[in-house]
Amino acid sequence: MTKNDEYFFDVDFFQRCKHHQMAPGDVFFLKKRKTDDRLIAVLSDGLGSGIKANVLATLTATMASNFIYNNYDIKKTAQLIMSTLPVCKVRKISYSTMSIVDIQSNGKVKIAEYDNPEFLLFKNDRPVNVKKEKEEINVNNEKKLFYFCEFNFEPGDRIIIYSDGVVQSGIGKPASPLGWGEDSAQEYIRSILQAAPNISSRELARQVVFKAVQNDDNIPRDDITCAVVYFRKPRRLLLISGPPFDKTKDSYIAEQIKNYPGKKIICGGTTANIIARELKREITVNLNNMDYSLPPPSTMEGVDLVTEGIMTLAKVAELLEKHVNFEVRGATTNPALEIIDLLLQSDIIQFIVGTRINEFHQNPNMPVELGIRRNVIKKIAKLLEEKYFKKTKIDFV
Fold first, then answer.
1. What does pTM read for this prediction?
2. In 3D, which of 14, 390, 373, 34 has the Cα closest to residue 237?
3. What is the fold, at CATH topology level, of the domain defined by 8-232?
4. Which residue in 147, 190, 358, 369 is a FRET match for 245, CA 20 to 30 A apart?
5. How far apart are CA 296 and CA 338, in angstroms?
6. Tens-place pLDDT, residues 232-255
């Protein structure tokens, strides 16, 4: 994210494990240094699959991200890790690969790659070739190669990195005896960007992985991972929950909803009624496909989502903390998952939290973990910043 919030680095990834494996052999790490808004992304593919591969990839990704985070030169980082990685005695290859992406807030990018498929750079929907330096090091009397490049990231640009599970998907099939291949993967990504120029990093990575899984007849033969960095104008979201302490501020929160230049969520029946009254709008409860674990959502003109308040927000915090697979859905409509969808699609999230006490939430029989509204929202904001690299702001009224 740039200092003035004019542009934003949208970074996300998607992943599927090899069939019958519970732990991914690919590991994607993302670190953000708040002092200078620097982003460090690392994708590592451990040899084989399962727990052993995961441990090897985690070790590599941890070392790389920590070195870069602490201002160690990216070339020296790659050389050091390559020198220390063990080599498989049978296959004569290192136990893990790596792609290291170092992005400064001014858009300067440095990338080092070792044994992963080459990264892709797209300018809008057009793939661009990047000049790379070939670096050679000697490890135990054997030559190893890695590639390094640097360039300036511009608005509309995307960096796409993926593991060999993507390009080798479909291997052995008559249509792709050698696998999907880098050219076909690039063309597929280009077609997605032409059809959906503003697609989020999360959704683009998801579509690439789903296509690779499809190439394997929905039985992945390897771990499949894709990560995307997209430099664009930020997507904004406003979430309002709770009535203002001073009733004269009712019109203020209504105007915030009316004039906000982004997605809008209202959490809380009292809050929704205040805004509906002030803006003279109707609230309609959606009873279709109800998820009975939470009160149903509602609709209001000009608002993307209206839900119940504290119970739904507490569920949002719980799911964000667990970092569950949000793609897995049942047949019912879950308001907490709908909120999470909107949160994760956004970059800059503003919370307006009313501080008027709701007597119902002081009932000692209410579950302790629900807490009070302000603490739940503080927890959500912290999780969004630390786990999902969003920018948040909380205003109490």
1. 0.82
2. 390
3. Phosphatase 2c; domain 1 (3.60.40)
4. 369
5. 11
6. 989 999 999 999 989 899 999 999
